[in-house]
Amino acid sequence: MKLGVQVNEGPYQHQASDSAYQFVKAAVEKGHEIFRVFFYHDGVNNGTRLATPPQDDRNVANRWSELAAKHDIDLVLCVAAAQRRGIADADEAKRNGKDADNIAPGFRISGLGQLIEAGIQCDRLVVFGD
Amino acid sequence: MSEEEMIEGGGEGVIKKFLYLNRRAPYGSIYALESLEVVLIGAAFEQDVSVAFIDDGVYQLTKGQDTKGVEMKNFSPTYRALEMYDVEKLYVFKESLDERGLTEDDLIVDVEVVDAKQMADLMDEQEVILSF
Amino acid sequence: MPTLHTVNKSPFDKTSLNSCLRFAKDGSSILLIEDGVYAALNGTTFTEAVKTAMKNVTVYALQPDIEARGMANKVIDGIKLVDYAGFVDLVEQNDRVESWL
């Protein structure tokens, strides 16, 4: 079936992103289609490529990027939430006069409409948060 | 890029029943504000939208919020504007009001106050439930 | 039209479980994940409430979360343990998912 996932929390602070990742991985392995993973609230912090977690810990952002590359999963960071929290791609950085971008590979920034669209298009929407 | 520029047609002609489930008080965390932002953007998609307020979520709707001292945006007047976005179905759980010593008169907007059975029925009708 | 409810909060910390139990209809399923699994245990002040709920709803707990917290030998009899694949199956078997955060 076609599944949408919403992630409301950033990495490490809360387990929500880990749970969402394990859920998405299991769903893909079972042959389901992940229509989109939408990152909202502090969830946008999953999409920075600048995090440097300890080497003996999981790398949450890299793990999402690798899963997206392997299974062609659409990872969307909410633009309003990302702007608040300083997550930017090259276009956003330029538009807002910032000196750098930090988005991780496989993520893109778009509007909240993408979450609503996932709700409309998917058979189920599952929310992970705090 | 603003939110408005990014709205794209998704599933044209499909109307689903969406429930926004609010269980958090405003200001202490951002969930209430960012939930309201989803409701406003989502209105453009012309879905069948209901908004429920349970537990501390009922505090989002209280009259008399004044945020000058904390220098945060007072977004409570926006709930009154939801009607203009055709978001008219606001449901408040009666027990949550009672527990907090609140009545419908304490709320900034007209709502339907419902009991547990009615709220459970409402949830059971939905196709998409977004929790904040 | 069954619903899958997920609860990810310890019942000692938040009202998520209480609210979920208030609105979960007979025949629905509740999946305890993350700190929500502390509601799945014997010998707590919530054990009776969960056992009572189990007469009308099916209660599941996410095994990896139970094991991570060292609680595998304390789970209430009758609570079904699932892995992430089982979580996906529950999402598929129900008509909607309601997350009690």
Task: Tell me about this structure.
The complex is a heterotrimer of chains A (130), B (132) and C (101). In chain A, 37% of the residues lie in helices and 20% in strands. Chain A is α/β, with parallel strands linked by helices. Chain A has one domain: DsrEFH-like (Hypothetical Protein Ychn, Chain: A). Chain A has a 5-stranded parallel beta sheet, sandwiched between helices. In chain A, helix 1 runs parallel beside helix 2 (60-71). The longest helix of chain A has 14 residues, at 16-29. Chain B has 132 residues and is α/β, with parallel strands linked by helices. Chain B has one domain: DsrEFH-like (Hypothetical Protein Ychn, Chain: A, 3-Layer(aba) Sandwich), CATH 3.40.1260. Chain B is built from 4 helices and 5 strands. Chain B has helices at residues 31-42, 77-81, 94-99, 116-124, and strands at residues 17-22, 48-53, 89-93, 112-114, 128-131. A 5-stranded parallel beta sheet of chain B has the order 4-3-2-1-5. In chain B, strand 2 (48-53), helix 2 and strand 3 (89-93) form a beta-alpha-beta unit. Chain B is globular and about 45 Å long. The relative contact order of chain B is 0.22. Chain C has a single domain (3-100), classed as 3-Layer(aba) Sandwich (Hypothetical Protein Ychn, Chain: A), CATH 3.40.1260.10. Chain C is 31% helix and 22% strand. Chain C has 4 helices and 5 strands, in the order E-H-E-H-E-H-E-H-E. Chain C has helices at residues 16-23, 47-53, 63-68, 84-93; strands at 3-7, 29-32, 58-62, 80-82, 96-100. In chain C, strand 3 (58-62), helix 3 (63-68) and strand 4 (80-82) form a beta-alpha-beta unit. The longest helix of chain C has 10 residues, at 84-93. The radius of gyration of chain C is 12 Å and the shape is globular. The chains are: A alpha/beta (130), B alpha/beta (132), C alpha/beta (101). Chains in contact: A-B, A-C, B-C. The A-C interface holds A 1, 3, 8, 15-16, 19, 22-23, 25-27, 29-30, 32, 124-130 and C 6, 8, 33-35, 64, 83-85, 87-89, 91-92, 96-97, 99, 101.
